[in-house]
Amino acid sequence: MPKRYMRNSKTISPSEQLTLLKSTVAVVGCGGLGGYAIEELARLGIGTIKAIDPDVFEEHNLNRQILCTSSVLGKPKVEVARNRILDVNPAVRIDAIRGALTYENGEEFLRGSQVVVDGLDNIPSRIALSEICDVLNIPLVHGGIAGWYGQVTTQLPKTKSILKIYSHCHEEKGVEKELGNPSFSPALVATLEVAEVCKIILGRGELLDKRVLFINMLDMEIGEIGL
Prior knowledge:
There is one protein chain. This protein is α/β, with parallel strands linked by helices. It is built from eight helices and eight strands, in the order H-E-H-E-H-E-H-E-H-E-E-H-H-H-E-E. Strand 1, helix 2 and strand 2 form a beta-alpha-beta unit. The protein starts with 13 loop residues before the first helix and ends with a strand.
């Protein structure tokens, strides 16, 4: 086993590490949540990561997006992600897809993925992602953040979890447009998303299937509701 994975070995067996290496995970959105997710997936040892995002880094991203530094302002997020991961773990293949996921291109972008990570920041795109994953029978790990608060759930095929959460929302943006996001919110929620991805691929543990985990970092409270 490569030394880079030795600290995984008490939690993840050599055969499981090989399973991760053979897996493909798509991350849709490479900003706050997505950037942390890409970083952690690469360090975990996921073999192929599809990084999907249409945007470039801007100065207002510097407060919370791990891939954003002063030297990359104006550069495409997916290209920065690829260069970063080549430096962090050259064994990982990064497919940098610069474009916004839509109903028209979604199946092409996501096909071949074992799991999809939601790093999006608007409700219509999340619903579209949910429906495309359903068509392709791909599990979707959703994360949402707003100020001190976050939520995580895992949508398995045909459970319609994202629609149940957002079906009554009429705004394009959620409450994050009012509360903003500090540095720690995407870091924590993305970490929980990556843990769900690992469990899905390895077939271990209890998933957040049909339940939403809510995190209140201001009062340090964690709760959940069923879907």
